[in-house]
Amino acid sequence: MIQAQPVILGELPSLSKLYVNAAANAARRRVLGTPPRRKLPAVSHEVRDVTADVENLTSYQHFLGETASDILPAGFVHALAFPVTMSVMNRDDFPLPLLGMIHLRNHVEQYSPIQFTQSLDIRAWAENLTGHRAGTQVDVVAEVRHHASQVLLWRGVSTYLAKGVFLPGIDKAGTSNSAAQTDFKPPFPTALWQLGVDTGRSYAAVSGDFNPIHLSGLSAKALGLRGSIAHGMYLASRALADVGSVKAEAFTWDVAFEAPVFLPARVALDISTSQAASGAWERSEYVAWNPRSGRRHFIGSVAALG
What we know:
The chain is α+β, with helices and mostly antiparallel strands. The chain folds into two domains: 1-171, Thiol Ester Dehydrase, Chain A (Roll); 177-306, Thiol Ester Dehydrase, Chain A (Roll). Helices cover 23% and strands 31% of the residues. The chain contains six helices and eleven strands. α2 (54-64) packs antiparallel against α4 (199-207) and α3 runs antiparallel to α6. The relative contact order is 0.15.
């Protein structure tokens, strides 16, 4: 964990402004030929005394298929913390370009339920700058604490890949997403999602994440994709919603992304659940794939914590 004193932000950053700034930084680096940095900024960013907007929470729950509740879904907490994590990646001294970053995987630890009325402190930093066979990857960590007691409520680690970016002094061999190397035979699906071309824009409206690769075919093509793709955290959060209320109040949540979901799309999902000897829920595993090609999009699990 970052030991330096955090940079305290007065309010949650605007994601749209961060993306505009990221585009300007990328253009400036190209023009000036700024040499790439080899290390991460030794700082964290923090926003204090944050509360969820109840209308936004309700819209998020309805869109994701979550049961209406005063408890913040784990995916909603990720969205709440996302502007802080993005502000770290948008720093001038961050070594990797923000735009075009590929989301590889997520690991979340939910320690206790979070009420929408609770005041929260959100802190984020970057660590583990490592080589990848396709570029350079980095972990961005976010922690959410109760403002008054400073009890840790939620912790998330998002791993991103800057494809084609090889930093001097960092091994190019590195690691790869090993889950993608395994053979996959599609099981019988337990759910079939129909995702419209506007799915990216709709999720952006409830999450605040207006990354151009998700908004339209034109904006995605400008960043090198053949079309717009669904947000990784939308897919993961919808799978978590499909696991439903059977999960424990404290749990771990993992997802590894393998192939993007180009919009519009049909996505098949299978969820399998295991129970402890007592009969209580213990773990759910899920996998999603393209029902036409059989190509796997992502895998994940939700398991009781403690």
